[in-house]
Amino acid sequence: MSAPGVEPVPLPAKRRMAQLVMLGFAVLIVMGAYAAVGLGIDQKIPSGMLTYGLGLGGFVLAAYLVLARFAPWADPLILPLVTLINGLGLVMIYRLEVGAGGKGGASATSQLLWTAVGVVVFAVTLIVLRDHRSLQRLTYTAGAAGLLLLISPLIPFLGQEINGARIWIGIPGVGQLQPAELAKLALIVFFAGYLVAKRDVLALAGRRLLFIDLPRARDLGPILITWGLSLGVLILQKDLGSSLLIFGTFIAMLYIATQRTSWVLIGILLFVGGAVLAASIFDHVAARVDVFLNPEDPKLFERELGGSAQLLEGLFGMSQGGILGTGLGQGYPGLIPLSFSDFIFAAIGEELGLTGLMALLMIYALLVERGLRTALAARDPFSKLLAGGLSFILAWQVFIIVGGVTNLIPLTGLVTPFMSQGGSALLANWILIALLVRMSDAARKPPPQAIQDEGLTQVFQR
Amino acid sequence: MSELTLLLIKLAFLAVLWFFVIAAVGVIRTDLFGSRTAPAAPARKAPKPVKPPAKPKKGEPRQMVVVGGPLQGTTIPLAETPITIGRANDATLVVSDDYASSRHARLFPQDGQWIVEDLNSTNGTYLDRTKVTRPTPVPLGVPIRIGKTVIELRK
């Protein structure tokens, strides 16, 4: 303790204990969910409860130990929140696998395996990347890597087209990967580094027209290039989700960097222009808009590819769930096509009801809040932009897929972060969380001891 | 397994899920009420302090807040260690500002006061309106200007 009379200086607490308790709580909830699934389906606690529950618990305990060693000041909530979302996703996939009798593509074992890989990648990122500001030096490398990853599915022999979208690359021995998931991270690093260097000219130059500050015409370059890029993704790969994700994130980061509303307005205008153009020219976009406007049309319902059956089944499922849901293991989420990946949100809505969905959305919101809080507390502009961009893309992704599943906006195939079955997305999102943890550690760490000696600075003074 | 048990399990699970959300909000409660809750807790346990220890000594700042410029909203808790401000990457507060020098200014505690010292910067450090030419004590709430960045000491 300090000497009497001297106030102990308040430091931001590490909150190690709180984090451990919340982690245990999250793992317990997940194990409870496994038990509830088993009791709901065949009246006994499933044998998988211990393997899956303790497996997840072991992985996150390892992640926690790495975090406590290499990022001790990190935010105490990020890891428990991610653990719960990832765990609930695992439970839901397990439930769908059991419900379908092992057929239909849902595989809890492979998802648990990918969770393990994700945790390992999380730990490696934390250990290797001691100072996230070194990423700023890789600005243009990251940009090039992001572009390369984004266009890699278009390369003949390497790229593969599945369900109408050319967003996969096949790697012998591993299976298919979606490089766009990793491209997102690289592009955010690029956007952050680029905007730190260019934000002054983008924020200050221009003239005032009526009530908004318009930028100069020649400063429109970056936004037009990003727009062209996302249109390219839309047209060549038929991937609406990634296209919307990249452009929206760029607009948000531009706004964070410059605080100029005119960029958001220009972004929205460009987006609306692009969307109207795409919907009138390309069939696959027009089909999505048709389904969005008239999902109950029998002609659309019976259409084989790109029909409204999936959307309607999801809506029926959620209405079946109502306020409190049917209970885990007691609904029929297996009726929804792809309910283990794109439509996992509808499956959860059926079994946990509105109450469960709201809790889930709250957990996502808290995760995003912790990310934005990190951005606020960060001490240099690059970290602020990177943390802001990463948290925004998480929120934006949840909005796009949940909005699509609930028919608020046209459906675009995107994964629900940490929940949907899919290795590449899980991997990329664990890296995203590692970056956020690394930055929150740097932001909450107390200021370091000054190195220079008192006498030396005096010499240089005048 | 009766219908009732399943219903109870379902309700219990939803309740626990929401309890997790509430517990998570409880963990971050300190964000809302500032760091004051941290020293207040041990103070309550102390057996009859002579003076109320929860209150800081008069005029003793607890945090540095950026109130203007691109880093607006950043707060740095004040410890015993000096704080450096500048464009250099190892500064405590890194400002990316064409008007700031790489090692621009320094804040350090001395006898319960915080002193600002200009580190021979090109464009100078201003305490309120006056240029800082030698180490000067910083009163609470008086703005320090460094390039486009304005910082203040607060309790």
Automatic annotation (TrEMBL), chain A:
Subcellular location: Membrane
A GO term from the CC aspect: cell division site
Example of a GO MF term: lipid-linked peptidoglycan transporter activity
Topological category with respect to the lipid bilayer: Multi-pass membrane protein
Keywords: Cell cycle, Cell division, Cell shape, Membrane, Transmembrane, Transmembrane helix
GO biological process, one term: regulation of cell shape
Entries under InterPro entries matching the protein: FtsW/RodA
Transmembrane segments annotated in the record for this chain: 20-37, 49-70, 77-96, 108-129, 138-159, 179-197, 217-236, 242-258, 263-282, 343-364, 385-406, 418-437
Protein name: Cell division protein FtsW
Organism: Planobispora longispora
From TrEMBL, chain B:
Cited Gene3D superfamilies: 2.60.200.20
Region (Disordered), start-end ranges: 38-63
Record keywords, A-Z: Membrane, Phosphoprotein, Transmembrane, Transmembrane helix
Positions in coiled-coil regions: none
PROSITE patterns: FHA_DOMAIN
SUPFAM superfamilies per the UniProt record, alphabetical: SMAD/FHA domain
Transmembrane segments: 6-28
FHA domain: residues covered: 83-132
Record carries keyword Phosphoprotein: yes
Database matches in InterPro entries: Cell_Proc_Reg/RNA_Proc, FHA_dom, SMAD_FHA_dom_sf
Pfam families: FHA (PF00498)
PANTHER family referenced in this protein's UniProt entry, alphabetically: NUCLEAR INHIBITOR OF PROTEIN PHOSPHATASE-1
Protein name, per record: FHA domain-containing protein
